[in-house]
Amino acid sequence: MVERRYEGRVALVTGAASGIGRAVALRLAAEGAWVLGCDVDADALAETGKLIADAGGQSTMAVADVSAQADVDRIVGLLPDGRIDLLANVAGIMDFFLPVTEVDDATWERVMAVNVTGPMRLSRAVLPLMRAAGGGAIVNVSSIGGLTGAVAGTAYVTSKHALVGMTRSIAALYGADGIRANAVCPGGVATNIGRSAVPKVAWAYERLEKAFARTTRTAQPDEIATLVCWLGSDEAVNVNGAVVASDGGFTA
């Protein structure tokens, strides 16, 4: 492995304030990338920037909601000379494990906005830049919820399946431009996904718990970040349109 795979490159990482997003941002910076990180959590995002600076890396952190078009425009405007080599769509939220009969419109719309519309808008914004530069990579962090229906509520599962479909569509349509798009599907990861992971409907969660018995281990954020960073690097030049599970064998 080349330890400085991202030397001189530019990466945009969403959800960079914590969990997988922070781990991706730290690893990319350690490998030489200039990292543009964004998140809605200003304090935690600032801590990510400090961690990168303390380690000798370079980054800019921008508080932003990826589901808002104005914020997407502002973020992309911060890219140096309009250059981007890697877009890592990591930001995501849960849905309180709500089944379709119980999901409210506000939860449905917010989950789809963050988990699907945000990655779409960012991809839509950076793809022309990548095409003009002759290449680039997009790595979307989906979930085993994008491969099976038995791990979360309806909104989350739907959103993560949609993100897998978006990944494959981009790979098929833009591969000839030297652009690769791949998806990572983690299982359980030790992250602070927040209150959106608190179950609200007892009977639905009880049914989903039966599937959780297949869990062999809980991953650490950096274990997912290693895969994200590999897929975005030149070492994965022949990998395009892949949907890679990193779940300890949950979906085996």
From TrEMBL:
Keywords: Oxidoreductase. Pfam families: adh_short_C2. The keyword Isomerase does not apply. CDD domains: SDR_c. It comes from the Bacteria. Belongs to the short-chain dehydrogenases/reductases (SDR) family. This is SDR family oxidoreductase. It comes from Phytohabitans maris.
